Every structure is written in structure tokens, then in C-alpha cells.
Amino acid sequence: MMRAVKVSLAANIVLCIIKAGALVVVDSIAILADLGISCVALAVSVILYYAIRISNKPADILHNYGYGRIENVCEVMEGVVLVGLALAMSFQAIMCIIRVEEVHAPLVGFYCSLVGVAINFWGSYYILKLARKSASPALRAEGIHFKLEGYISLAITVSFVLIILATKTGPAGVADYIDPVTTLFVSALIAVPSIRLLKEAFIKLLDASIEESRQIDVVKVLAKHIDRYCNFKDLKTRSAGRKRFVDLHLVMPEHISLRKGHEIASGIKNDIHTAIAESEVTIRMVPCKKDCAYARQKAKCPYLE
Predict the structure, then answer these.
(1) Local structure of 21: helix, strand or coil
(2) Helix count and strand count (H, E) for the chain
(3) Cα 305 from Cα 297, distance rounded (Å)
(4) What pLDDT digit, counting tens, does each position of 94-149 carry?
(5) Domains, the chain, ranges and CATH?
(6) CB atoms < 10 A from the CB of 148, how many?
(7) Model's pTM, two decimal places?
(8) 282 by DSSP, 3-state: which?
(9) DSSP 211
(10) Which of 41, 69, 124, 199 could be a cystine partner for 146, CB 3.0 to 4.6 Å?
């Protein structure tokens, strides 16, 4: 995980340097917006570095369930900052449409944006691959951020191609409007997925249950051991960062020993750990109250055989 964070830091530093140099030469609002995104990404990468380090700390007396929730906080921060940046960029673009400014050296902007496309898409692929392995929401948010930046850099690259073509062949003054219009388009590209990211992260902060597919994995494990216990109830799950917490009550046959019951519960816990990475499972054993279908029909309990 830390390798992914270091890659993110290095890539964002390189992107900031390239875009800052391009901004000085080209004087483009689209590149200014792109540079703003990279500066935000660099700041978030620094926060992410410390967030991952803190989330790896074991549970203690002050945080009984560990520090995994800090990854969700990091997601929310990234979403809020990106939405704010999109609004600021939109305002600046509208002002530039009202007061048109000429873009200088669009060819330089084209090559710099092209380099940004390559770095961002490679970074997105690498970070998202590690995020899937570690199930880290913070890394996933960073990978989405890189992919978003890749599409933004691609849109800006296309805009510089249009500016070059419009300058040579198009009507006078058309090229000057391409830059702010592209910035408005980029703002929309940022805002839509960022709002979605913010919504998902906020829901996770409200002790949301784990993903439906993971809940099904838990039920599959319980079904695998169905012949070793009477029933299960009060199944509860929640997530905190990449951690998954599973809590359930296991109704055990009244006659079995504590040792045997512990053996059955341990087997179920181990299988859930195998099915769901980074999970913590709590199983409470409760004795059968003889209120099942067998008892109501006065049939012989199958666990007494």
C-alpha cells in the first residue's frame, strides 16, 4: 500500500512541475485548472501517506476497532476539495468568456498535456490495481482521481489541437473561446464523479454495512457449516476504511460442550477471514431455546444423534 502512495506522491510532483512550466509559457486557463487539480492531488497524496500509516496501527484502548475509519475521512476530504475546485474553475472560465484572453504557444501546451495523459493513466492503472488487492477506499479514491486527471489532460490536449487548427484555418477570434469552454467542460468532468465519491464516502462514515457481495460471502460460509449449529441470528456488518467487521450470534445445540462449540465457531471465523480480507469476526454462542420447528412438532433433535 505504501508503495502506491509513494508512486502517487512522485507522479504528482512531476505533474506539478510540468504544468507550472507550461502555464508560464502558454498562459492558459485550462492549464491553470489542470495545475490546480495536480496541486490538490499532491496535497491529498501527502495526507493519504499519513492516513495509510495511521490506519495500519493496531487497535488500542482509545480506538478499540482500530484506525481504519481515517481512510473514509480522507475520501471525504478529497471529494470536498475536488467539488470546490470545480466550482472555482467554472467561475474563472465564465469570467474568461466575458473577457477573452489569447492563448500563447499552444504547441507547448499540447505536448505538456500529452505527457500528463500518459502519467495519469499509468498512475491510475497501478494505484487501482493495488487498491483492489488491499480493498483500501483511500487508495481507490486516489486511483479514481488519477484517472479523472487523465481524462481532463486528454480533453485539454484536444483543446490545444483545436486552438492550433482554429488559429490557422478558423474564423478570427474563435480560438480564444476554446480554452475557457474546455475549462467549463473539465469542471463538469471533475464535479460529477467527485460528488459521487463524496456521497459514497459519507455513507461509509455512517457505519454502513459491508458490500452486498461480501455479505453473501458470509452467508455462504455459514451455509457451509449449517450441519454443525442450530441457527444464526443478529448478523451485523460494518466497514471502517479497508477493515470489515462481522458480528453474529450462533445458536448451538444445548448438549454440546464449550470446547466443541468453540471449535465450531473458530472454524466459521477462519473461513470468513479467508473469504473477506482484512475482516474481524465476532461470534457469540447462545444455547438453543428449544423453540425451533423440531421442538414445536415434538420431533427428535437431529443434533442429538
Answers:
(1) helix
(2) 9, 3
(3) 17
(4) 776 776 666 677 788 888 888 888 998 998 888 888 887 777 777 777 787 788 78
(5) 2-205 (1.20.1510.10), 212-304 (3.30.70.1350)
(6) 22
(7) 0.63
(8) strand
(9) P
(10) 124
